[in-house]
């Protein structure tokens, strides 16, 4: 990718083009070049260092100048510090004080809004300076500088600066990071951490690759939080955590110690580090190696997001950045600074400053649209519609519809219209006309709004005409699904009528026309079409719109279509179409009349009683199996007329029933014996009538017919004494199965005897049980009080003076007498009877029944 000189472009300008084309993974960061005043500065000068505050930026250059910039890169202040390279700029947390050091040994610490300050010139280069994070507060006026030594400056009471040496003897100090009470710095050999609160050095973290020149591959330090330090040096990254030591283990040791939580190697050289939640943003210097990779690509710096793991790391994303003059830069020329408040990352090189930031939802949607993932973009926009600023959900949806149409996915595009177009009538109509232009009206027809939101009737009529000209079935489906209010019904009716002139017997068009007539409340027209087509919805139409007055002259048509449904409908609505009217209409179709009257009779034996005489002939003609049940159940049919019809047609069973019902049982029995020759039926008939004379006639008729005798012997035993039949059998007559018949008679007799004995036992047991119950009842005590009277003298049974002796006699019938009021003994000496019960000739205990009554 060619170098991009224009300012303010997005991430595509700073990342490798070939990698972007091959990768289908969305980048995690987006990039912009810091422009405005920065562009002019870097055209004449080169950036050497930069420090980031949430409110502004501080940029140091190779010509000894320091610029204060706003977030957009506009210059707000300029300081002429030196004529040589600015090595480091440090800001306190408030952004009110700044510390600056340069290559010629100058160190300046001053307030941006006050006159106070510290100015010192050393005779050796000062590489780094770091202010106390709370430098603004009077108790924390401290800062450190790093050259050949690590020096601490503190402001004492008389406003004088006191200097003390924290460390020396291990080469030049190359980096310092101060967080809370912890100071971390690097020299040529290792990284050390100093606890400012206890004035103790905690630990040393040794450098892994000692072969690299520390001035060419400087150490990168970054505090993730107040206790976690990230160290990057060469191709090694270590994550160190400062922890409190257990008091029992201290002895002469510092109160804190450092534990390395993660340690892993990287592919390229580290130029800068910054935290991103639980991940790391790492700026890599890619050393040229023409044997393995393209030379130009290898010289581009890379910005990676890495997920540290206990045993290594995982690369989340990696972007190769095209910065200005990257071919001339070394590892020490790049720096990575970050703003904790907004997750902004600044990649600083001598001639370019690039800002990386986390991608917003708008950026995510941009990427999805670029990759033509329109459905995912639409979903993302719908979920985050409150947070997106550059995009509009409906516009994304329209882009998706356009994409589907371009790819020929017309049905999918039409389906998305429901979701995307919503209630925008203008967009709906535009889409309909577009689908018409491309010949795909059918695709969008089923998704058109048809509820509270409706388009102009002309839109729906245009689609209906399209279907009517090419697809009768589709046209019929739309008529069924669309409410009739969507279009001009009369116009569509006329169009269908015109088509029927060319094809008058087309059932689909006729059915659709009937539905249109129904929408237009011209039910008589619809009914005629349905009857003509024998359409199943005819009965539903009649019920729904109460069209019974319109079908009085169409009953035969309805019956021809479906007898069962027609009869059920007529009988259910007898109040609207009378029985007489139906009979009149069906008079010339007796087979249909029979079906109607038969169902009427089944529902109620009496409602059609005046047609029962007529029904006899109808049953005889069309439904003989139901004639006999009808004759049995009907109490209104004339028996003589029925007998005449049955005799004419030689219906023996029906004639037998009518003869028996008219009292001519002997003739009926004769017909059974002579015409049916069915002894079982004759016996059954005799049993039903239970007439001795019939049994005699049956025996007389059967006496010379051995098969009949066998039947009688098998069935007569329980109704007639078998001896009467046996005595009349002629000697020498051969009777089939006589032995079995006699055995059966004996078995039946034994069964009768057993039944009688069983009944006798039950009767005796019941009698004994009742006698015992009566005896227990009579043995119970009886309450006698002042309310009881003597049945003879009618005086109170108890004397007024209970001290005197008295005698009372009570019978089992509960009648009471004074002893002296009883008459003398009767015919049986010593036995007395109740006078009242004896007079009434009732037995003992009958008085109890009288009392219960």
Automatic annotation (TrEMBL):
Gene Ontology cellular component list: clathrin-coated vesicle; cytosol; early endosome membrane; Golgi apparatus; HOPS complex; late endosome membrane; lysosomal membrane
Alphabetized Pfam families for the sequence: Beta-prop_Vps41, TPR_Vps41, zf-RING_Vps41
Domain of life (superkingdom): Eukaryota
InterPro entries for the chain: Beta-prop_Vps41, Clathrin_H-chain/VPS_repeat, TPR-like_helical_dom_sf, Vps41, Vps41/Vps8, WD40/YVTN_repeat-like_dom_sf, WD40_repeat_dom_sf, Znf_RING
Region entry Disordered, spans: 1-30
Keyword Lipid metabolism attached: no
SUPFAM superfamilies per the UniProt record, alphabetical: TPR-like, WD40 repeat-like
Chief localisation class: cytoplasm
MF (Gene Ontology): zinc ion binding
Functional note: Plays a role in vesicle-mediated protein trafficking to lysosomal compartments including the endocytic membrane transport pathways.
Protein name, as recorded: Vacuolar protein sorting-associated protein 41 homolog
